[in-house]
Design goal:
By secondary structure, the protein is α/β, with parallel strands linked by helices. It has two domains: about 90 residues; about 220 residues, Spore Coat Polysaccharide Biosynthesis Protein SpsA, Chain A, CATH 3.90.550. About 50% of the residues lie in helices and about 15% in strands. The chain has twelve helices and eight strands. Strands 1, 2, 3, 4, 5, 6, 7 and 8 form an eight-stranded mixed beta sheet that branches. The N and C termini lie far apart (about 60 Å).
Length: about 350
């Protein structure tokens, strides 16, 4: 009989009807078409048609070699459905990615505008900017800021704390210590925080930029060692290398990863990097204006590879890595960190 459905066919037909009705209710509720109805309508109609007449699946089952095997029609239907859903999923993923990019851009602009309205009249050109991205480092900020020199050579030093959406009082403490503060309202990643710092430094005509961590692992007294090659015209980009210096960090697994990934970058670019993940660096404005950074988190290899591709001078100087003053690393598990770091290397090299 026409209505002699198996339980599976009845279930499929019911799901199709519910989807068909649901999409029209959604469209009636949101007249601005916040949803794309075509894929859902087509899927619901196909589902109902197959439930009424499973013979529609015979051709795909025959083509796929499923004819005659148990549940061959169902396997063919599932495979064809997956193939049809895949481009829709990729399209939605692309939209989500674009929305995420737009959100980060809006957050950056908010931080930039807020900073300029607060400090715009009090910053002179030609200063050395020390950009320190922080996330919940309220206990470590005072010591880091106090140890930084006020002047290097003939250039004043401006300390910029970029608060990456901290939930503690990092911004307030940094302000009390005399640092300038740019605050992101949400936690966006160290790369986004550095983008903000770089853009501010360029817009205020900084002489050069130093980046360092806010956890106390980098020795502020070594800032002058990093900036000297740029001030003397020897380099455009100076990397502080813990491999050439002293590494007192307890994470030995990450130390091995640094050596492996440094060799990978050297293989891809023909350089001789020894510390590809160092956050203690000095960067000229020529590099910052020439390089467009994209990575929101694992940005260091992107910066290195982009600099090398532009044939700019890159110099290594030894640095000392000290134990964190307090708290725990925000870099996550070693396995995830390694995977994401490797991905950023490949993407930067292919770009």
């Amino acid at each position: 009989m026409f209505f002699d459905f198996s339980n599976l066919r009845a279930f499929g037909f019911g799901v199709g009807v519910l989807l068909f009705i649901g999409i029209f209710i959604e469209l009636r509720r949101h007249r601005t078409r916040r949803v794309s109805p075509a894929p859902v309508i087509v899927f619901s109609l196909v589902l109902m048609a197959v439930a009424l007449n499973p013979g529609f699946v015979d051709a795909p089952a025959r083509f796929l070699g499923f004819e005659g095997i148990p549940r061959g029609r169902l396997l063919a239907l599932l495979l064809v459905s997956a193939l049809l859903v895949w481009p829709v999923a990729m399209r939605n993923r692309s939209k989500i990615s674009q929305l995420h990019t737009d959100l980060l851009a809006t957050i950056r602009q908010f931080a930039l505008l807020n900073f300029r309205s607060t400090y715009g009249q009090s910053i002179d050109a030609g200063a050395i900017w020390v950009v320190i991205p922080v996330f919940n480092e309220v206990q470590n900020i005072p010591s880091v800021v106090r140890e930084l020199p006020a002047v290097v050579g003939d250039a004043p030093v401006i300390v910029l704390i970029v608060d990456d959406g901290s939930s503690d009082q990092s911004s307030a403490v940094a302000t009390q210590e005399g640092a300038r503060v740019a605050r992101l309202p949400l936690n966006c990643g160290g790369g986004v925080a550095l983008h903000v710092g770089f853009e501010l430094a360029v817009s205020f005509d900084a002489r050069l930029v130093v980046t360092m961590d806010g956890d106390g692992q980098h020795d502020p007294h070594q800032v002058k060692d990093l900036v000297e090659p740029i001030l003397s015209g020897e380099a455009d980009f100076v990397i502080g290398s813990r491999i050439l210096g002293v590494n007192n960090s307890p994470n030995r697994t990450r130390a091995v990863g640094i050596r492996v990934f440094s060799r990978l970058i050297n293989l891809l670019t023909g350089t001789r990097i020894t510390d590809c993940s160092s956050g203690f660096r000095a960067i000229s404005l020529d590099v910052l204006t020439a390089v467009k950074l994209i990575e929101p988190q694992y940005h260091t290899p992107e910066l290195i590879i982009a600099t090398v591709k532009r044939n700019m001078n890159l110099v290594k100087v030894p640095i000392q890595i000290r134990p964190r003053l307090s708290g725990e690393s925000k870099k996550g598990a070693n396995l995830k960190y390694g995977f994401m770091f490797a991905r950023s290397i490949v993407r930067a090299w292919l770009r």
